[in-house]
Amino acid sequence: MPKIEIDESKCLTPFACKKCLQVCPHAVFAVAPKEVLRFKETDPQEPGSYRLFVVYRDKCVVCNDCVEVCPVNAIKITLPEGA
Ligand code: SF4
Ligand code: SF4
After folding, report:
1. For the chain, percent helix, then strand, then coil, each to nearest 5?
2. How many domains in the chain?
3. Per-residue pLDDT averaged across 43-57, rounded?
């Protein structure tokens, strides 16, 4: 299974971006708020309010489309030795 790393210091507003989600043919990613505060709406434009999650890592076919589409180079995909 490939290893998918997301650099959160680069991917700051995933909800507003979502480029990798849209491009991925296997819907590997999901975006969710980091924490939900009561009585406060989570602002998708606020850096760090949302986080990109890798939900179906086993579905990744290492097409590298997400790596190429990411405007800030936040995704790194590596295959384990011998895979
Ligand atoms: S490499 Fe391809 S299949 Fe894997 S997460 Fe990226 S876009 Fe999806
Ligand atoms: S394309 Fe890059 S910046 Fe945009 S949500 Fe995905 S990882 Fe974050």
Report:
1. 20, 20, 60
2. 1
3. 93
**Percent of the chain whose pLDDT exceeds 90:** 78
Residue 50, domain member (yes or no): yes
CB 52 within 8 A of CB 29: yes
Handedness of CA 42, 45, 50, 53 (dihedral sign): positive
d(CA 74, CA 59): 19
Give the pTM: 0.91
Q: Which residues line ligand 1 (CB under 6 A)?
A: 23-26, 28, 60-66, 77
pLDDT of 75 reads 98
The single residue listed with the structure tokens 């895979």 is: 83
* Domain annotation covers residue 44: yes
Q: Is the CB of 12 under 6 A from ligand 2?
A: no
CATH number at residue 22: 3.30.70.20
